[in-house]
Amino acid sequence: MLTLLNLRDEENLVEQVTVCGNIKFRYLIEFERDVFSLGSKKLTEYCEGRDVLVVVSSTVYDILGCVIEECFSKRSASVATRIVSITDSENDKNIEHVLGLCKVAKTVGIDRKGIFIAVGGGVLMDMVGLAASIYRRKVDYIRVPTTLLGQVDAAVGIKTAVNFDGHKNLIGSFHPPMAVFNDVKLLASLPVYQSRCGLAEIVKMAISLDRGLFNKIEPRMDSIIKPKLDNDWNFLEEVIAESTISMVEQIESNFYEADLARYVDFGHTFSPVIEEDSQYQIGHGHAVAMDMALSTQLSFDKGWLAQEDRDRIIKVLMRIGLEVRFDLLDEVDRLWYAIEKIMEHRGALNLVVPVEIGKSTFIRDLKTIDRIDLVNSVNGLRKFYEN
Ligand SMILES: NC(=O)c1ccc[n+]([C@@H]2O[C@H](COP(=O)([O-])OP(=O)(O)OC[C@H]3O[C@@H](n4cnc5c(N)ncnc54)[C@H](O)[C@@H]3O)[C@@H](O)[C@H]2O)c1
Ligand SMILES: [Zn+2]
């Protein structure tokens, strides 16, 4: 028998044991219209022979509950299928609700081979994803985003999170979904404010990384916000797909965010504090739009962005239709606090600013930006809005 003594003797000294993991994953983002209709089998095929917990936003359930129930009603009696609806405001995005979902899964009898399906916006998908990453140590989950922001952003990567102790997304995990189903028609019932918030994230990709996308959406913003004709829906689907591809290109070499200098964080430095300070009355995409306007002005004031591009960018941001002028921009203390907080999170500033349409750079630390710069840019923006 190998005893500790043997291990420790001179000849057989064990100093370290190497453990190698091999985490690889692959998932499809499917563009599938009428995903819950009985004619579309793709979603239920993923669930064959497995217990399923479908978690639906209560708002979406009020609109589509019958269709969703019908979709799963034909499943075999030998597997558990449970559909639950939950409230999904930003204030609901907490660990208690995630544990509540785990409790439901246990009560229903979801085993380790079970699947969670998240049907809702970013808030709901973040909660269900986190629950899936801890329930029985990990179960598969599928995302069916029902908001524009969900389709172009929250559903694309592998992050999950809830807010904790006054901090947005403080507790979370990296858990790749098994699949994502982007059904553009699910957006038909979306309040226009939410469409505008989603468009803000598309505009983010366009300004910071994708000039082609910017040129494409600039003349047709209204088709994205309020699609009416078939042509508009096709255009919207195309834009979602292009924005998603740009996003995937950015994150695929950095899923676990070992590198916290990310171009996709354009608009995400001041925005968390803007959201928190508004008690989440200002939506995520809305806060991102405000942040992008300020970051753009900062770049212009530094002499890195031509006036023509600054003007085009701010005009596009204004045409999203979200109020980008707001009192908080006058509160430089809070904006500076946002900078300090993000440095704590990222370990550096890495503030993304555009240098031309479709191209951006980082302000990496406080050697390049100070409070005076912030005050100047806030004033510069105000002047722009007034003219
Ligand atoms: N995990 C990630 O990588 C990631 C990325 C971006 C954002 N997020 C998170 O996503 C959240 C924002 O998500 P969101 O913008 O999708 O908003 P949301 O989830 O808050 O949804 C907005 C509102 O729309 C309602 N709704 C959803 N779908 C609807 C539909 N089809 N018809 C009518 N109403 C509908 C919801 O009930 C909610 O009231 C934030 O918490 C943010 O932190 C996560
Ligand atoms: Zn975002």
Detailed description of the structure:
The chain has helices at residues 4-8, 42-45, 58-73, 95-108, 122-134, 148-154, 192-209, 211-217, 221-225, 230-251, 271-277, 284-301, 307-319, 332-346, 371-386, and strands at residues 28-31, 52-57, 81-86, 115-120, 140-145, 159-164, 167-174, 179-182, 351-356, 359-363. α6 runs parallel beside α10, α11 packs across α14 and α12 (284-301) runs antiparallel to α13 (307-319). The protein has 15 helices and 10 strands. The chain has a 6-stranded parallel sheet with strand order 1-8-5-4-2-3, with helices on both faces. A two-stranded antiparallel ribbon has the order 6-7. The protein folds into 2 domains: 28-189, 3-Layer(aba) Sandwich (Rossmann fold), CATH 3.40.50.1970; 192-386, Dehydroquinate synthase-like, alpha domain (Up-down Bundle), CATH 1.20.1090.10. By secondary structure, it is α/β, with parallel strands linked by helices. The chain binds nicotinamide-adenine-dinucleotide and zinc ion. Zinc ion (ZN) binds at residues 153, 201, 268, 284, 288.
Tally of discrete structural domains: 2
**CATH architectural name of the largest domain:** Up-down Bundle
Strand order of the largest sheet: 1-8-5-4-2-3
Cα-atom radius of gyration: 23 Å
Which stretches of 5+ consecutive residues score pLDDT under 50? Answer: none
Per DSSP E runs of 2 or more residues, the count of β-strands stands at 10
Report, as a whole number of angstroms, the end-to-end distance.
85 Å
SS summary, helix count: 15
**Ligand list:** nicotinamide-adenine-dinucleotide, zinc ion
Helical content class: 40-55%
